[in-house]
Amino acid sequence: MAATASVISNTSSVKPRLTIGQLFNMSFGFFGIQFGFALQNANVSRIFQTLGAELDKIAILWIAAPFTGLVVQPIIGYLSDRTWHPFWGRRRPFFFTGAILASIALFLMPNSIELWMAAMLLWILDASINISMEPFRAFVGDKLPASQRTAGFAMQTFFIGLGAVIASLLPYIFTNAFHISNTAEKGVIPNSVKYSFYIGGFIFLIAVMWTVFTTKEFPPEDIQKWEEEKLQSKGLAHGFSEIIRGIGSMPKTMLQLAIVQFFTWLAFFSMWIYTTAGVAQNVYNTTDTTSKAFQDAGDWVGVMFMVYNGVSALAAFLLPMLAAKISRRFTHLICLILGGAGLISIFFIKDNHTLLISMVFVGLAWASTLTMPYAILAGALPANKMGFYMGVFNFFIVIPQILAAAILGFFVKHVFNDESIYALLIGGISMIIAGFMNFIVKENKEEAAEEIVQDIETIRLAE
Fold this sequence. Notes:
Blueprint: H1 20-27, H2 29-50, H3 58-61, H4 64-81, H5 92-108, H6 115-143, H7 149-176, H8 191-214, H9 223-232, H10 236-248, H11 252-282, H12 292-315, H13 319-326, H14 328-346, H15 355-369, H16 372-378, H17 386-393, H18 395-415, H19 421-436, H20 445-462
C-alpha cells in the first residue's frame, strides 16, 4: 500500500467546492480526536500526581507526547502521501488504525496502577492520536480548493473545540451532576476520571469512523505514473532519505511560521502541564493529591479548559471575517497577544470563577493557532507532499514541547521554589512573543484574499 500523492493538482479548478454537509463529514473525526487530546491535556498531570509523581518530575513525564509527535507525524505524513487503495483512499487507513489504537489506550489509561504504567500509556495514546490526526490536516489540502481551505480548517477547529468542551467538562459533570466520587485512596484514579476516559474512548472511535465511512478521496489521475513512482519509492532507506531532503527544502513561508509555532506551543504545553498544580496551589491552597481540594482543583481545571475550547469552537467561524479585513497573519498576531495576556493573568487571580475570563482570551489564541497557520501554509505547499510537510510542520510544535518538558521542572523546583504557577507566567510571555513574530510571516496575498472571501460566503450559506 505505497504510492504517490503527486496525482492531485494544486489548482482549485480540479477540485469541486464541497457542501457544508461534506465539510461536516470530512471534519467530524476531529471531534473524537480532540476528545482524546482534551482528556489527556486536562487529566494526565492529575493522574501522574495521583500515582505519586513529584511536582518537578511531571514535565519530563510529559515528554512522551511531543517526542512521539516528532517521530510519528512526518513518517505518517510521508506514508500517507504514498498510499492509495480503491476503497480506503489515501488518508483514511491512518484515521482508522489510529482510532482503534487510541481508543484502547483511553480505556487503559485511568486503570494505571503504577506511575510507569501511566507514562507508558501516554506514549501509546499520543502516538495513536498522532496516527489519526496528522493526515487530517493534509486531508483539507487534498480535498478542498484554495478558496475553501480556511473554511475547512475552521470546520476542523469547530469540532476540535466542541469535542474538547465536552471532554474537559466530563469529570466535573460526573462529580457534581451524578455525584460520582472525585477522590479515592492514595495511588488510585478517581471514578469520575475513569468514566470520562471510557466515554472518550468510545466517542473517539465512533467519530473517526464516521469520517472514514462517509468521505471519499480523489484517486490518482495517472495510474501508470503512480505505479512507476511506487516502484521507485520502495524501501525504508529511500523513505528516510527523502524525508531528510524534504526537510532541507522547506518552503520559506513554513520556516517563518515555524518561529511563531515555537513560542506558541511552548506556551500551550506549559499550560497543559502545570495548570492543575498551579491552580491547586494558587487558588485552592493545597499540594496534597489525596485531598478533596486538590481533586476539586482538577475538576475546575477541566471547566477552565472547557471554556477556552468552547470559545475556540465559536471563534473558528468568526476569525475568517476578521482575517478578510486585516489578513490572516495579523489576525493571528492579535489572538496570540490576547491569549498571552490571559495566561499571565492566571498568575494574579485568586478566585476560581474569575479564571474563566482568562480562559476566554486563551480560547481566541487556540482557535487562531488551529486555523491560521495551516491556512497560510497550505497555499505554500506542493500538492504531492502535503501530508509530509504537514508532518514536518509538526516539528515546530513538538520541539518547543520537548524543551518545555526538559527545563520547566528544573525552573519550577530550583528557581520558583515549587510554585508551578510561574510556569504559566512563562507561557504567557512566550505566547506574546509568538504574536509579534507574525510580523516576519509572508503569505500569498492574492490567494489569501480569494480564499477568505469564499470562506465567508460558505459560512453565510451555512447560517
